[in-house]
Structure formats: structure tokens, C-alpha cells
Amino acid sequence: MFEAHSINAEHKDLIHDIAYDFYGQRMATCSSDQFVKVWDEDEHGNWHLTASWKVHSGSVWKVTWAHPEFGQVLATCSFDRTAAVWEEIVGEGSGPGERGMRHWVRRTNLVDSRTSVTDVKFAPKTLGLLLATCSADGVIRIYEAPDVMNLSQWTLQHDISCKLPCSCLTWNPSLSRLHPPMLAVGSDDSNTSNGGKVFIYEYSENSRRWTKTETLSNVVDPVHDIAFAPNLGRSFHTLAIATKDVRIITLKPVQDSAQSGLSRFEITTAKFEDHYCTVWRVCWNIMGTILASSGDDGCVRLWKDNYINNWKCVAVLKGDGTSAQSTETPLTTTPPNHPTGVQQPLSTTRNVTIATVTAEKPTAPIMSTSKWQAPVTKGRFSKSVWLGNPAEPSPLPPPILDRPKSKK
Amino acid sequence: MSSVKLEVQWSPIHSNKFITWGTEICLYEVAQIKDTVRPSCIKISDSTIAHLLATNTSHHYVKCIDIYPQPEPDILLAVGQANGKVVLTTFGPTAFDSLGLTGKELAPKHARQCNAVAWNPVDPNLIVCGLDKYRTDHSVLLWDVLKSPFDIERIHHHSTSQSDSVRPISESGISETAHSLAWFNNEPRCLVVGINNKHLKIIDFRDAVKVVNATPTKAVYSLSVDPHNDYHLVSHIENQITIWDTRYFEKPVLTLPQSRPVTKVLWCPTRHNLLGSLQKDSGALHLHDVQHCGIGGGGEDTEPGALERTVIPPWSSPASFSWHPIHVNRLLGISQQGLTDYTVFERITVNWATRSYLAWNHASKSIKYICSNDNIYKSLDDISVLTKSRANAEYGLLPELSQNGDLAENETLKNLWQWLYLSRSLVDDDTIQSPENKHPGVRMVLKLDGQQNSTNSFIKSELVHRPWTDIGSNHTAKIYRSSDRDKALQLCGWRFDKETNALYNHLFLERLEREGAYPRAAAISVFNLGLRQAIEILNRGASKMSLATNLNIVAMALSGFSEDRNSMWRELCLKSRSQLSDPYLRATFAFLTADNDSYENVLNENGMAVEDRVAFALMFLSDNKLHEYLKKLTQKLSEEGNLAGFLLTGASIEGVQLLNRYLEITGDVQSCSLIAIRALPPKLLQENQVQVWIDSYRALLDAWKMWNQRAHFDIAMRTSTNEKPPQQVYISCNFCGKSISAYMQGLSRARGPFGRLGGTSNKLKMSSCPSCRKPLPRCAICLMHMGTVSGLQTSTSNTNRSEEDNKLTEFSSWFTWCQTCRHGGHANHITNWFRHHSECPVTTCRCRCSSLDASFKAGSLLQII
């Protein structure tokens, strides 16, 4: 039986976020107990608590590391309506041969928000030392430290209102010069009639402003987390969304969208309901090939792309780490403690690209005998929209996969 | 009553017992599920069953129940009834019987409904009940179950009617209705009561009974005190849940409007500030994580809020629920359909480290993680783990191109690297003239794409009729030849002996045979009109391989080849061809039975390697058809991201697109960037796409702290562009500002005034600026002038002279300095110093140089802990 490694967290209340630094050798956790703890890994692979301090006067929602180029820097955000930037420094303790103790000092407290600050994220380092926050009053704020050596000075560069309460944000990590800086924001507004809950903002170098370029109108349930996959040079952006299900959305920039006046992106959605209820968090591996999600079923599920946009659940890890399953085929488990033991139909290959703007009319299922699974509209897809240019012809079924057999 | 109200409550003292009541009161015990479920048990979850221990049917019109909270082995219930009486009862005989508690009735003067009953959490004898209004009678009555004012002497005389005479020890709430009440945990004589649909009152029973605090509100139901904080109360009315702080009792600290009428709200005993609630006609359990916020932060008091969460346990229309007193987040729900034992999972946050650690939290207690060494992680087949191990093995950086393919341990990549090796060697030995591009593709060699006037450069092929000589037939096959086609064939790996009839290289076929690829060897023989040879190959194969392949049967079939269009052989072959499992054998027969030079079945045989299909096309297709076929094939392979298509595109912009498609499918940015720096011409390397691969891969190496690999990668990248990186560090004199290093480089070439010193075993000693003669700064540790060979240097051995000669000094005596305080010295002195110190070695300087360097951290950490 598999058992996950365990670290005694010693937090007094629920842990809201775990953040690894750039190298994956330091870890920061934050909790409702208003503390942040920093853990360091020694050369034997053991994790040690090296710092623990009270960072806010309310629950700490998120913690995040800056690129090490800027020093050992953390940012936190809290229910107490503030976000803070922390730097690790070496104390003044002196004495021959004695190394000063490291400790964390607050470099700045960002108090612009009038409500709970729900997420904080450093921008990709190519953009400089930028910090984005979003808050429950629906404002995204982008701060910049003009002098990277002085972390006490942050200027509020942009103040973007998105009308709905924000719960999470993510920077697009693309390194391509052709992609303008991009942010995606999710809202946990529970009123489904308020429309789309995920917004894409892009920065225009000409107007020097952030503008909303896309609203994902097929995500209407509250969004709890959102994450862009590492891009690595792909021609599309992949966005994972934690809402009442796991969504994996690809955004392919459309050329010459300015003329057509239509969507900037060709959007494909894949949707998985294996968590049965709410999905809380999503995160990507370093190369953007596997997605991890956690949800109300108390499990961490891992999703992998087998072929272009053909995502499958490849492993399920129980929250307590005592056992885990790994499988080639999708798992068929009943919902936890389900009294009737009825097996729900489970997701298998479920990506749908429907070449119409109206989601209500899915195309007829195309059956294929090849290994490649043709786009099939199955029962558990409630909705999948392709928001691209409707005038474009339907995408052809992808070609039959032929890899040369091993030549032995 | 139209429907019986169902209720459930965990015993506060027995962690495995609970009661339910509706028409009767039932006591259950919870046990782990066993294989056999006894009929008396009810399954309440996937892992637990409830065993009915006892039923108490003697009480009707039960309105409310509280379980005696003191740690006793038996369960004593206080049952509040519709007539206002509170009856103490048990399940069967218990220790309470001897105390006279069982069956004791506490009755108010006037009968009316009892709305609430609650044992005092501290004083074991006290119980309070809340009643409906009756004229001028009190509605909140405090009883002492053992010492009622009148009990002692009456017990003897009127044992049957004694309960009538028990009087409450305290009373409150004249002419009021008590809807709900709750004791405070730390103030044993104080309780809070919801009164008359319009007040919450805090009543103190300690002295004279008095109301110490009150607030007007309609939310008077389900009143309860936070088990973790006596100041916090919760109550509800219709669609609202209100949270109170007794210190600011004037108004609720938080009002949570709900979409439906609330039927029940309870504090979670195992989590701070967590409320659970049920709503009418809703299957969901609503959780309200109340957020309080101290003073600070924004400088002013922040209003509390609540993190709302909805979970849907596997129940249907729950009537009530009860939190387990000890087990974290466990609760029991009851509905008309039955009971549900459910544990609410805490929210899990999950994160993925760059080093392939996946961590998540298990509630607040622990952090769980898996890493790339675990089997579960290995089964994920994470490309990043593979990428890392390939990077460690210097994948892509080995000088011999084909060796890199062996490292990859992947057939497709191996073939690609091998092809890169092949194409380079063909270009290098001038078989193919391609001055700019070391890896031209088939299309490039055929000059199919490119300039508008391509018709000029495209060499027309001649048609050759070649007979099938070795079967003694005079039938001929049409073969197209041109010099470009020959070169392209070589790119496909089909090496030709130009003029002889045995057109192919025997070595190639022998290699295939050695590898066991008999069908492929046979097919290639047949394509080269060597039918007899193909049969020989198949026969050899049949003797070596398992019977399943039936190679000799195939050979037999092949020997019957007949060019006659209407022969039976042909007919049969056409029919049974599709049943052959091997693509090469299928292609062989497709070729032999082809009509009118239409070789669709060979060309579209996807099981055949791309190079063989292309080579086949190069031999048998006319110029137009070839052009068309290659165009289609390129397009198809590019769309699929099939690296075999690189044969067609070569190192061109289409090749870049192909690689990018491959990247999109596999995420293998490593192979893409390494192929780019090894194979792409400098111009293509500047493509934005390619630069993104390279940047991404370098960022990966950085994140894995693979500095050496990163440096080697950068070096390899520079060599391909042929541009020398500029020198990045210069040393200039403090005084005259002239470059010292430039002068030193001159010296190393053994010229100039010091040239004769260069060859001696004593390294050059230079401690002053060569132009102004002022001394160089001193090392902070050894106090020698920099540039001086000092300290630990061992005598130079003669073995490594050639390498050492190029360097002026050992690395250990290089200059190094702190970027902040500008103090420094010889590299190894400084390194030694900071192994034991954190402060700058210069006496008055308090700069903590080493700790400013993040990469120095790892080593220093241990000493702190």
C-alpha cells in the first residue's frame, strides 16, 4: 500500500495554500491561524520548519514566492484586506563565528483594498518585479517595485475593476515576445445569472493599459482557482479552472482578430466532473503536461494529456495520503459513502470541440475505428463551447495517428 | 401532527453512540463495517454500520432531548415533552436508577409545550428548560435533578406523586415564550435564551435571577454558543443566520442571508468558527467558515465575513444532523430514508514544485507529498522527470549526433538523431551540396519548395524501364531516376550502388536482417525488383523467428508472383492482403498487385516507416505525383507532430513548425531546443518560436539547479552560431582605469616583456598595475596583493601542462568580491572564510555578504538549524 510522505504542519487552523520556491527546495504554507511557515529541505530530503510568524490579522489566503533573482521574497494576502511583501534577511546578532539568524521582515503592506484580498501573484520575471492582487470587491491591482533592490517601495500601477468579486488570478507564463502580458481572473460569485466567471486581461503596450479581451461565458459557476500552464513555446495557452468541475481550456490566439472584431481566441473546453462537487485547487507540473486538482471528494486527481487535448485522469491520491491509486484507465469509484453504491458514469476521453457558437446544438457524434477518439458528445458534457470565429469551417477530425512501429 | 420530526444526536460522551428520535427514541452504536452485515444493523456509510441497541417507546410527543453530558457509562436523557414536562429516562436499567433519576419528571405549574432543554455543562445536577408562554407564569425554569427544595421528606411518603411536587430552583421569563436556549461553557450559571420572537437575553442565575444583557432580534431559533469561544453565539430565523458577539451584543456581528429557509444550524465542535446548516428542501449541507479579523492590518476593525461552502453528502432531503463531538468534521444526518454517516473533507490545496514534488495539505495537521522517486509518481510518466534525467546524461550535447538518440531511449527520437547524423555526413562528404544547411530535407534536395522559378532548378526525371531480371521475366517496372532523386534516396537511408542491377546496398539489408526486421528487408528488396532475394530473406527469417509470423508461407506466396493482370495469384493476393498483420508484407503485395502505376496502397501504408514510403515514392512516382505526394505527406506529418516528417522538411522553417507541433503534443521542449541548437542554421535559430524553446529549456535547467548542463547548453548554442560571446568581466586598475586583464591575456601568449616567465613552474606574479605600476588591491584574508599566487597552491605538475598553460592562475586564486560591500579576495580564501562566518572578513565591515547570495544558502542552512 502506498503512503505519501508526510510533514507535520503544526498549523492551528486550516491550511489555505502551499507554495514552492523557484527551485522547489523551500516551501511556504499559510493558514487561517494567521501564520505563515517556511520549510526548507536539507540534503537528505527532510523538510525543516525554519520560520513561522504571524503575517496578518485574519486568515491568510495565499502565499507566493518571488523569483530568487529578487532575493528571498514572499507575498501574502489576507482576509484583513491587505497584502504584504516579506523578505528574508540575516539578523544583527553578532559574535565571532556565529551566523546571524535569518528572519523575515515585512517590506510593505498593500492596503488599497477595502475588502478581503483573495489572491496575490508575482508576474513572470521577464516583466520585472510586478505583483498582482485581486480582492472580493472585484478589483485587480498591479503593483510594481521600480527599484528591485528596494522592496519597501511599491507603486500601484494599474487598478482594474472587473465588477464581480474575484477569488483567484494567474499570470500567463509565456516567454514569447509575441504574446502580450496576460492575466486570467476568476470570480467566486455564486449567482450563475451573472454570466462568465473567468476573465482574460491583456496589457497593451500602445495604450499602456490592461483591457479585458475575453470572458469565458461558459464558466458560470463560482471559480475557486485558476492556473495557466507553463507554455514552453506552444502556440496556444492552456488554462485550468477549478469550479464545480475541472475545466481545461485552451486559448489559441487568432490572427487578425482586430479586423474581424470577434473573439481574440479560439477556445476549446474540456470538462471533468470526477470530483463530484466543488473543485478547490488546480496546479500544473513544471512542463504543463500534468494537471493536479483537489476537490470535495477529498482526493487529489491528476490529469494528463494523451494526445492533443485528450485529457485523462491518470491517478487519484487520497487526501490523507494513506492510499492512492494509479490507473491507465479512468477510475470507476463510487462517490464517497454513497449509500446506494450506484456507480456514476465516469469520464473517459472527454474533449469536445464543437464548431458552432451555439452550444445547445452539439454536432452528431463521429465514430472512428482508429485509436484516436473522435470528438464525441457524451452525456456528462453539459456544455462545451467553441467560441472561435463561426465563419470558419468546422475543424476536421484530427488525422489518424500513425507512429512508425518499432523497426525490429 | 402531519409529519413526525426526526432528530439525531451524537452522544457527547460516547464516541460511538448516538440517539435518534421521532415517534420513538432509539439508541445506536456505530461500528466498522464487517463482511457480514447483521440484519439488526443499518449501513450508514461505506465503512460504518449502526447497530440498534435499544428503543424507548414510552414517551410520546417528544419535543426536545438533551443527553446527560457527564462521563458516565450509561446514557441519561432529558426529554422535553409537548405538555411541558421534562422527563429523565434511560434505555433499560442503569446506574441512574439507584439515584432516583430515572423516570423523574420535572413539570411546570401549567402545561404548555417544552421548546428546549439543556443540561448544564459544568454542574451535573442542573438542567434548564424553555417553555411556551402561559399567562404570568415563568417560561425558563432551572431545575436541580437531585436537590429539589421539597424532595427529601416527600420521597418517603408520596413516592408515586413526588414528581409533581418538584419545584424549579430558579425561574425567569414571565409571560414570555422561550424558543431556544444555550448554556455558556465557561460561565456555568449563565445562559442565553431566545425570547418571544424578538429578543435574545442573557440570564444570570447566580444571584437573584436577572437579565444581564439583551438585544432585539427576530433570530431566536437554534441558539447555540460556539464551543471554542464563549463570546460567539449563533441563531437563525427564516433565511438568515446571525452570529453574535456577547461583547457587542447590540447588533449581530455577521448576518448570513441564505437562499432558502434555514432549518438547523450548529457550531462544529472540532473546528474553530465553523458552522454547519441545513436549509429547507435542499440536499446540501452548508458550511460557513466565519472569518474574524483582529485589529491591525488596515488599521481599523474589519468586518467579519464568512467563507461559504456547500457540500452534498450522499443523503436525500435531510431532516436534521449532528456533528460528532470528537471526530474531526464528522457528522450524522437523518432523513426519512435513513441515516448517513459523513465526514466533510477539508479543502485541499495542492501545489507542484519544479522538482516534481506534488504536495497537498491534509486538513491543518499535515502536509503530504509525493516525489519523483515514488512509484505512484513514476507511473504518471511525467515528461519533466524524463527531461531531467536526459539532461543529466548530457542528452543532446554529445558530440556525435547519433549518440544523443541512443540516450533518449525513444524510437522516434533515436531515428531523428540518426537521420541528423546521416544528413550531416552526406552534406559533409559533399554527396549533397548544401552550404548553409547541414540538414537538408528531401523536399529541399528535390528543390520542391522555395523560389518562384523553381521549375528551372527542379531537375526533370528520366523514366527507366527496368526488367525483373532475377525471376527470369521480361516484365519491366517503371522507375524514375534523377540525380536529385538519388540524393534524396540517400537521405532516406537507401544507399545505392548506382549502376549495377543490385541497386541497393547489401549492408543495409544485412543490418535489417540482423535486427530481425525481415519483412522490411524483404519489402525493400521487392521494391528494388529483387524478388528472389526477398524470398531468401523471408526464408532466413522464417527459420529464426517464431512460427506466428508465417514468413515462409509469405515467401511461398511471393514466389508465385505473376505479372499477368488476370491471374489467379493476383486475385487471391488482393483478397488476402488485408489479413497480413505486417505492414511491410502488406505493402509488398500491394506493390506487386498494383494497377496502372497507382501505388496508393503502398504509399498510404501507415505502418511503414516514413523514410521507406518516401524512398518508394522517389523511385516509382512521376514528378507531378511525387510532388503532390510529398506535399500531402509533409502536411499530414506536420499536423501530427510526427518527427519522422523531419526527413521531408529538413532544418527549415517547416521543420521548426513540425518540431513545435511535436512539442505541443508531447511537451518535450528539451529535444526541440537541442535539435534546434545542433541542427538549425543560425538564421532559423533566431526565430521567435525557437528562442522561446531555448529560453524555456534554460529556465527548466535553472529551476533544477543544473548549472553545468545549462552552461554546456549555452556553449553548444554559441558554437552553432559561430559568434564568440563577448568577454563579460574586466579588471581595471583602481588608479589609472586601464584594463589589467587585457594586458594579462597578452602575457599568456608568451609575448611582451614577461614572456620568458610564462613557461616556468612558478606562475606569474604580478601585484601591480602593468600600466601605472600602482599596486592591485589586497586579498582581505591573506593580505597579499591580488594577482599574486599565494596560499594553498600546490606545485604545478607537468602532466596537465597544456591545459594549465592557458590559464594565468588557478581558479582558487581568482578575484572575487561581494557585490554589496565590494570587499573581496582570492576565491578559495573567501570561500573558506564564509564556510565559518557570515560577516565580511574586513574588520569594520558588517556586511553579511554570503547570506545575500541565495545560491550559497543550501550549505549554510544546516548550521542554522
From TrEMBL, chain A:
Record has Repeat as a keyword: yes
Coiled coil stretches, renumbered: none
GO biological process, one term: positive regulation of TORC1 signaling
Record-linked Pfam families: WD40 (PF00400)
GO annotation, cellular component aspect: lysosome; nuclear pore outer ring; Seh1-associated complex
Region annotation (Disordered) ranges: 324-346, 384-408
Placement of WD repeats on the sequence: 8-40, 272-304
Keywords for the protein's UniProt record, in alphabetical order: Cell cycle, Cell division, Lysosome, Mitosis, Nucleus, Protein transport, Repeat, Transport, WD repeat
Domain of life: Eukaryota
Annotated compartments: Lysosome; Nucleus envelope
Biased amino acid composition, Pro residues: 392-401
InterPro entries from the UniProt entry: Sec13/Seh1_fam, WD40/YVTN_repeat-like_dom_sf, WD40_repeat_dom_sf, WD40_rpt
Family membership noted in the UniProt record: Belongs to the WD repeat SEC13 family.
Name the UniProt record assigns to this protein: Nucleoporin SEH1-A
Organism encoding this protein: Cephus cinctus (Wheat stem sawfly)
Organism lineage: Eukaryota, Metazoa, Ecdysozoa, Arthropoda, Hexapoda
TrEMBL record, chain B:
Protein name (Swiss-Prot/TrEMBL): GATOR complex protein MIOS-B
Residue span(s) of domain GATOR2 complex protein MIO zinc-ribbon like: 733-850
Lineage: superkingdom: Eukaryota
Gene3D superfamilies: YVTN repeat-like/Quinoprotein amine dehydrogenase
Keyword line: Repeat, WD repeat
GO BP terms, alphabetized: cellular response to amino acid starvation; positive regulation of TORC1 signaling
A Gene Ontology term for the protein's cellular component: cytoplasm
Occurrences of domain MIOS-like alpha-solenoid (ranges): 388-620
CDD domains: mRING-H2-C3H3C2_Mio
Organism of origin: Cephus cinctus
Family classification: Belongs to the WD repeat mio family.
Gene designation: LOC107274283
A Pfam family this chain is assigned to: MIOS_WD40
Keyword DNA damage: no
